[in-house]
Amino acid sequence: MSVAEAQTKPLSLKEALQQALKNKSEAIKAKLDEENSRNKIDEARSQALPQINGNAGITYNPILQLSAVPGDLAGQPGKTLLIPFGQKWNSSASVSLSQTLFDKSVFTGLKAAKTTQQYYKLVSRLTDEQVIEKVATQYYQVLVQRQQLVVIDSNIATTTRVMKVIEGQYKNGLAKKIDLDRSKVNLSNLEAQQQQLNNAVQLQENTLKFYMGIPIETPITVPPSALDSIQPKLAMMDVMPDVKKLSDYQVLKKQEELLVLQKEATTAGYYPSLSLSGNYGYTGISNKFPIGTGANWFDYASVGLNLKIPIFNGFATRSKVRQADVEIKKLQADIKNTELSLNLTYQNARTQLRNSIITLNNQKENVALAEEVYANTQNNYTQGLAPLTDLLDAENSLTTAQNNYTSALLDYRIAEIQLIKAQGNLKSLLN
């Protein structure tokens, strides 16, 4: 659903979640990190491919270096002659190639890059789940507050009708002024609650828009009918999650793999490395510029095999390996704690959901009872069998019961979301 459509049609939870995953910066950045991990693999792979470089240059020697030679060579025995060697202008062009034949750190780096890609995929999935949790929770907070607003509006309409009846009775001498004043005070209190709820709904909707990543000025409508879809589900509490398959746990395990590979890359400092190198170039020398056909040109080439054997670096490699071991042990402690935490979260979510269902059912019964009491009291008051105080009390009790019921609906829905999260099924809300 586009932003324009959001202005004209009711916003479902599924549409809100889709908007959030499409627009929210956290989700976008997580997807970009996942995409960028492929570039990191290419970068790591490049270290195992041939490295080819071209070089060219020209040098002018205004003063040639003098070299000392025996005078015997020039028929001047006993003397030392200083003779300049070389030409005023030198130019060169060459191509060099190097190829790694064996370097443990290079091949470990390639494995680490592939593992990093898997890590960012998991982080992206975890980020999506976090966005879904925020949006779903906020969505139902807006929904319940809107429902409370509907209840207040209904109560205001009912209280207004009662007040008009009392006002008519007062004019006919059948009711006291204090009864009319009490009714007006009750109506005024309901209108104050209505204004507070309107403000709260606006704030909650703005927060929902922020979580969805859409402009704050975009009008949205959360349909009250969505409350009908909230039905307590006891069966879902029996789904025991495998915490090792949850995103939070898998992200940490993938971090552990990366730390192990980092340790391997550090350990590679103990191993020798072998590479092949080659050079081919042309050099020209002349006393005139530009260097042309009159210059002396010659080519050269070389091929080499380079073996590097680490012997002693002041125990630097050993220290780095030990540091890597410590980091791995620290992460393993975090993994163990996370496993316990995820199990605790699941058990708490089950308990909270069970309690929420009990509360929800109780509040539903309370609403039905309060409606019945209010209807009977209103009928008795009309017939002069009950005082206004009883009617106002019954009205306040009904309002309280209705608000408690909508709050219980929110508590249930939030508990349900937490259990779905603990089971690793948050993306099911997109269906």
UniProtKB/TrEMBL annotation:
It holds the Pfam family OEP. Residues 180-207, 321-380 form a coiled coil. Transmembrane segments: none annotated. Gene3D superfamilies: Outer membrane efflux proteins (OEP). Keywords: Cell outer membrane, Coiled coil, Membrane, Transmembrane, Transmembrane beta strand, Transport. GO terms for molecular function: efflux transmembrane transporter activity; porin activity. It is found in: Cell outer membrane. It comes from the Bacteria. GO terms for cellular component: cell outer membrane; efflux pump complex. Belongs to the outer membrane factor (OMF) (TC 1.B.17) family. This is Transporter. It comes from Niastella populi.
